[in-house]
Design goal:
Chain lengths: ~325, ~260
């Protein structure tokens, strides 16, 4: 089975999700006597070696997208390669903004279904199945592709562990974006970086998240203090991100970051499915919430039924005096 | 300016979700409500039309049953009319089929200057339909919009990305998907609720729109297994008596993280 991985770059290196997908693709391809290629929307010179180290033997690169959005541009470049006869059996995408857009546009071009939000994949002969958690992860649904390839599947971050294969520098093949016409009319005219301090949310050993139970935006300061004292990263539920208390980059959950720290502290978070999906993989979960019926207590190793405005200041004081 | 908003009617998310054991699809019976994610798009559309000073907001929706209560909520907010593609054959449709059906419904309305959808639904959350719809319609798109303006025939969007947001411009007609929080959705007024009762909602089938095959036949996928995930072991839950924080300190000490 020949597999492509939609590969992305961050600060001159392949993203963690990219390396996770390459690692899994390698084991699926090895089991079926196939190869793994990476498909880069942009210039691949900085990351080609890193992609090779994780199992890509070929790298397709579109070259600079010139302000075009990846969804429309990369899918057109993929379609051109596939139309040229070089078609994979499976394309693996990261479950993120660009991954979703590229696979969506490509699915229409190829008239193929998409399966998203997966955490696992298996292949037997030509048959490919993927597994996705539903209902906040309580039920696992395995779905099998029934049409011919290329199969299109997206995987959540941290579904697989990234391991280097020791592969050499791969062959880089130009896969230019064809003329897009009217559908390519959207143009990125400026980009803005969201500032963050301390360890990155999805890499931190300890994550302290706050939710609506904090009552007001100014109380989020308690979350930041606690995170700092524990050398962790502050996070947030979607509710307070939507309310504008903290930037989107703090969001833990379905549409935010997926975190699996040693300790996850949920303060004033009820535990909506949307949030639980992003933190249920944490090794230890501490929850503080005044509603004893809150779903978060169903996954907590230690649950304190109480007011965050009383518990957190005492906890901060106790940690500070150590 | 005319805007079409794609809205989904979903089971109340406050109720526990359930799979239908005979079809392995999410149970979507009985009363359906407007997906909260879609209320942002409806509000955005109403504001854009209001600031343009002319035009109207129309709705397209798809459901396996003929439920319209969610659509009525959007009409009560101020949308003018809607098309509901309601067809038992749609059960089991994948995201691609959904996109084809919605695109055909948009075509039946004669298109619009702007088509708005949420980034993903709250019950199925595949998250690809808006971009697939744009491709089916042959339109440019700007996904994950956290701020939207339309001026001089161009859409200006602040688009959310992993670590940054981008300023994107795009000529209309175009498709955009809006994140929750892009605007504050209004509550329908009593007057709006009363007016919504008489606003036109045309109900059509997928076949009326010329989209076949739909449902499981068009899905290109089949559910092969369903298992219960391993549940987390129940933890210790205590009532705070003023000293609850000491339990947290002890827990952290035990893990040697402090």
């Amino acid at each position: 089975m020949n597999i492509w991985v939609f590969a992305q770059e961050n600060n001159g290196a392949p993203t963690t999700s990219t390396l996770e997908l390459l690692t899994k693709a390698r084991s699926v391809a090895e089991g079926s006597g196939g190869s793994v290629s990476a498909f880069v929307g942009g210039d691949a010179s900085a990351i080609a070696a890193g992609l090779g180290e994780h199992g890509a033997t070929k790298v397709y690169a579109t070259g600079d997208l010139g302000g075009k959005l990846p969804g429309v541009a990369v899918s057109a470049a993929m379609k051109a390669v596939i139309g040229g006869g070089d078609s994979p059996d499976l394309i693996m995408f990261p479950q993120n903004y660009e991954g979703r857009d590229v696979m969506a546009r490509l699915s229409v071009k190829l008239d193929r279904t998409v399966l998203t939000n997966n955490i696992d994949i298996s292949a037997e002969g030509d048959s490919v199945s993927v597994t996705t958690p539903v209902f906040g992860g309580n039920v696992l649904v395995t779905t099998t592709f029934t049409s011919g390839g290329p199969h299109l599947a997206a995987f959540r971050p941290k579904s697989f562990a990234a391991e280097a294969s020791g592969g050499g520098v791969p062959e880089v093949v130009a896969a230019p974006v064809p003329d897009l016409g009217a559908v390519g009319a959207a143009t990125v005219v400026a980009e803005h970086v969201e500032e963050s301090h301390g360890p990155k949310l999805d890499e931190a050993n300890i994550v302290v998240s706050g939710g609506r139970g904090l009552g007001e935006a100014s109380k989020y300061e308690m979350i930041e203090q606690l995170a700092k004292l524990l050398k962790g990263a502050p996070g947030a539920s979607r509710a307070i991100v939507d309310a504008g208390w903290v930037p989107y980059s703090y969001q833990v959950g379905q549409t935010g970051k997926v975190v699996k720290p040693t300790v996850y502290v949920a303060a004033g978070i009820s535990g909506a499915t949307q949030h639980m999906v992003g933190m249920k993989g944490s090794k230890n979960i501490i929850a503080v919430n005044k509603d004893e019926e809150a779903p978060i207590f169903g996954v907590a190793d230690l649950g304190i039924v109480g007011d965050v405005h009383k518990v957190l200041p005492k906890l901060i004081e106790a940690l500070r005096s150590r | 300016m005319n805007v079409i908003v794609c809205v989904k009617q979903i089971p109340d998310p406050a109720m526990p979700g359930e799979l239908d054991s005979s079809t392995n699809t999410l149970k979507r019976e009985g009363k359906l409500i407007l997906d909260e994610s879609d209320s942002y798009g409806v509000e955005m559309a109403l504001q854009l039309v209001a600031s343009a000073g002319e035009g109207e907001v129309s709705l397209v929706s798809m459901a396996p049953n003929s439920e319209v209560s969610g659509l009525r909520t959007a009409l009560a907010m101020g949308a003018s009319k809607g098309i509901l593609v309601s067809d038992p054959n749609l059960l089991g449709s994948d995201a691609l089929t959904t996109a084809k059906v919605l695109a055909a419904a948009i075509g039946r309305l004669g298109g619009a200057d702007l088509i708005i959808a949420a980034t993903e639904s709250s019950d199925g959350y595949t998250g690809t339909v808006p971009e697939q719809m744009a491709e089916v319609l042959g339109l440019p798109s700007v996904t994950f919009a956290k701020h939207v303006e339309v001026a001089d025939g161009a859409l200006k969007v602040n688009r959310q990305t992993e670590e940054v947001y981008g300023e994107v411009t795009c000529p209309v007609p175009a498709v955009t998907s809006v994140t929750a929080g892009v605007v504050e959705p209004r509550y329908p007024s009593f007057k709006g609720i009363m007016a919504a009762k008489s606003k036109p909602v045309e109900t059509v089938t997928a076949a009326d729109l010329g989209v076949t095959p739909v449902g499981w036949d068009g899905a290109g996928q089949t559910i092969s297994n369903i298992t219960k995930a391993e549940a987390r072991k129940a933890g210790e839950i205590i009532e705070d008596d003023g000293e609850g924080y000491t339990k947290i300190v002890a827990f952290l000490e035990n893990l040697k993280v402090i």
